TrEMBL record, chain A:
Record organism: Oryzias sinensis (Chinese medaka)
Keywords for this protein: Centromere, Chromosome, Nucleus
UniProt superkingdom: Eukaryota
Location in the cell: Chromosome, Centromere; Nucleus
Protein's name according to its UniProt entry: Centromere protein M
From TrEMBL, chain B:
Annotated stretches, region: Disordered: 1-34
Species of origin: Oryzias sinensis
Domain Centromere protein H C-terminal: 36-231
GO cellular component terms, A-Z: kinetochore; nucleus
Name under which the protein is recorded: Centromere protein H C-terminal domain-containing protein
Location in the cell: Chromosome, Centromere, Kinetochore; Nucleus
InterPro entries according to UniProt: CENP-H (IPR040034), CENP-H_C (IPR008426)
Lineage top rank: taxon: Eukaryota
UniProt keyword terms in alphabetical order: Centromere, Chromosome, Coiled coil, Kinetochore, Nucleus
């Protein structure tokens, strides 16, 4: 089973590569377009539905600085697909090179347990958890901005900061009352 | 924007999105300035540091529990932050020293820029003196305000005390006075009743006498006056 290795290839000069993984392939396109708008660095965006990634692209694929799992909270399949993809990543990625992004958190059809499950997953892996609003252009731009901050740190563009250090500051933490029943 | 590559078997797609007019790197026409090169150098050194850390990570392995690892982790993080703050402050101090040294050197050279610098310096000093003055005034005013507030508080306290005293006195005074008053009142009332009865009795007797002896009281003025007063008191029991 081939895992994606963060240090198997040389980093690109003035480049940051991010891999957006979304089983529904809905948000990734607009997010990718917003991400490449960045001018100070060259942002490479690669899209995938899930792991394992096709072997044919292994050669041409650049070194991935950040893997973003986009989970749509209204679908259980989305969460399960993301969870199943985790084992295809080398542990080195979990030191600040993985990020979870969640959409549709405000939808009323979302059971509370699913968000809790995503939180637990992100907290156990010490990864940041971002909430994104995908339906408006402002939402997409905001999500892209926040993702770029993490991406720049992961690709080494922020002096005196490693992705591990940043992940310690931005990692998802569980609220102390997560095991208690929620309002509804 | 290139369309995503479709795998022939229709499985996982791995697509690429790239901006059309992005600078292409060494083969492109865009020239990299010194600042850009420094940035790239810093990026590379960051990456190398990361890789070094990763390589060295396996060397100091020891087995311990997760909770111990968590504790060590947070200890290390606090230590790291402490050192970072220290380094930041020291760098600031160093920069300050460098700045002052450069300014000092500049002023010594006596060219027009140095003169402008001197003028700015003078202005800064004048403003600093003014600031000190105003700060002192502020302090004095603040002290005065505090004094006034203290006095006001004291006044309030005294007023409060006086009011309490007054209330005390008023409630106390009623009690002994009303008691004595009550006693006197009762005594007076019993006396009054007694004398009233006596006078009524006397009047009844007199009336009886007048009627029984058929004394003609109309003619004698003195007797008539006395008889008239008999009418005032009702004949009780």
């Amino acid at each position: 089973m081939s895992r994606l290795n963060p240090f198997a290839k040389l980093p690109g000069l003035n480049t940051a590569s991010v891999l957006l993984v979304e089983s529904e392939e809905h948000f990734q396109q607009s997010l990718a377009e917003a991400l490449v708008e960045e001018t100070s660095v060259t942002v490479n965006v690669r899209l995938a539905k899930s792991f394992p990634l096709p072997i044919e692209n292994d050669e041409s694929r650049p070194r991935i600085d950040l893997v973003v799992f986009i989970i749509n909270l209204t679908s259980e399949l989305s969460f399960q697909s993301a969870e199943a993809s985790l084992k295809y990543l080398e542990p080195g990625y979990f030191l600040g090179k993985v990020c979870f992004m969640v959409t549709n958190a405000r939808s009323s059809s979302v059971p509370a347990e699913r968000l809790d499950a995503v939180r637990r997953l992100a907290a156990s892996l010490h990864c940041p958890l971002l909430f994104a609003e995908e339906q408006t252009p402002e939402g997409v731009t905001n999500a892209a901005e926040r993702l770029l901050t993490i991406l720049k740190a992961a690709a080494g563009f922020v002096p005196f900061t490693t992705p591990l250090y940043l992940s310690n500051l931005t990692r998802c933490t569980l609220p102390p009352d997560i095991d208690q029943p929620s309002f509804d | 924007v290139e369309p995503p590559d479709m795998d022939s078997s229709g499985e996982d797609i791995n697509g690429m999105v790239e901006k059309d007019d992005a600078p292409k790197g060494p083969s492109g026409q865009k020239e990299t300035s010194t600042a850009d090169m420094l940035r790239i150098k810093q990026q590379m050194s960051n990456q190398c540091f990361e890789m070094e850390v990763y390589l060295n990570a396996g060397k100091n392995r020891r087995s311990c529990s997760t909770s111990e690892a968590e504790r060590d982790y947070s200890d290390h993080i606090s230590e790291l932050e402490r050192v970072k703050t220290l380094q930041f402050n020291q760098t600031l101090a160093l920069h300050r020293m460098q700045m002052w040294h450069a300014m000092g050197e500049k002023i010594k050279t006596n060219d027009p820029e140095a003169d402008a610098l001197k003028v700015v310096n003078q202005r800064c000093m004048a403003l600093c003196c003014r600031i000190k003055q105003i700060q002192q005034e502020t302090r004095l005013l603040q002290d005065e305000i505090t004094e006034l507030q203290k006095k006001r508080l004291e006044m309030k306290r005294l007023t409060h005390e006086k009011m309490k005293e007054m209330e005390d006195l008023m409630s106390r005074k009623e009690h002994p006075d009303t008691e004595k008053y009550k006693a006197a009142l009762e005594k007076g009332q019993t006396n009054l009743e007694k004398y009233k009865k006596m006078s009524i009795m006397a009047q009844n007797v007199l009336r009886g006498l007048l009627l029984a002896c058929k004394i003609n009281w109309l003619d004698d003025p003195k007797l008539r006056d006395v008889a008239m007063t008999l009418e005032e008191f009702p004949i009780t029991d």
